[in-house]
Amino acid sequence: MLPIRSALFIVVLSCFWMACQPVPHYQKVEAVPQNGWSYNFRPVFTFDITDSTAQYQPYFIIRHSQAYPYNNIWLWLYIKTPGDTATHKARINITLAEPSGKWLGRGVGAIYEQRMPVSLGDSIDLSRPGTYQVGMEQNMRLNPLPEIMHIGMRVEKATLRNTRK
After folding, report:
1. 14 φ, ψ to 5°?
2. Alpha-carbon separation of residue 44 from 22, 118, 146, 164 (angstroms)
3. Which of 20, 22, 86, 139 would you call most buried, defined as having the most Cβ atoms within 10 angstroms of its Cβ?
């Protein structure tokens, strides 16, 4: 058991660390049924962009155990932008571990959480005001994909764009 001072230090340190993180414009995380991401589990993340002068960076969030059998994950993204009737489909690869096998991201015990920046494609830049939808589907050979607990999306507002021409 930790002494009171050590526990208090950890709590204070955690608060400082959390205060240094940028506040997300949008964030949502979905629990993966039975910790195995099957092809038919396709979470959809819906968010609004109102400030067209800002830049936005989307992130993929994954929480998995250290027993996850791969160092990456392939995804299909289904992206619907404001005013479009068609959905754009993009296949992306996200690296989860270094070649040595060391997991990227933060780990607590045997659980790792990673927030990886993603590109939604050259034609999609999150600059148009309106509602965006991003669906995710795992595209690995193994179905269900084991040892995945949560999947999510985060969008952070970055710097202002130069609107002068």
Report:
1. -65, -40
2. 23, 16, 20, 35
3. 139
Nearest CA to 133 among 41, 38, 43? 43
DSSP codes of every residue in 26-84? EEEEEEPGGGEE-TT---EEEEEE--TTEEEEEEEEEEEETT-S-SEEEEEEEEE-TT-
Question: Is residue 92 very low, low, confident or very high in pLDDT (cuts 50, 70, 90)?
Answer: very high
If residue 19 lies in a helix (H) or strand (E), which one and from where to where?
helix 4-20
Q: What is the DSSP letter of 164?
A: -
State the CATH architecture for 24-160: Sandwich (2.60)
Domain ranges within the chain, ordered by starting residue: 24-160
- DSSP annotation of 82 reads T
What pLDDT is stored for residue 10 in this prediction? 52
Gap between the Cα atoms of 72 and 139, Å rounded:
11
Higher pLDDT: 159 or 38? It is: 38
Using one digit for the tens of pLDDT, what is the confidence trace for 101-137? 999 988 888 999 999 998 876 667 788 899 999 999 9
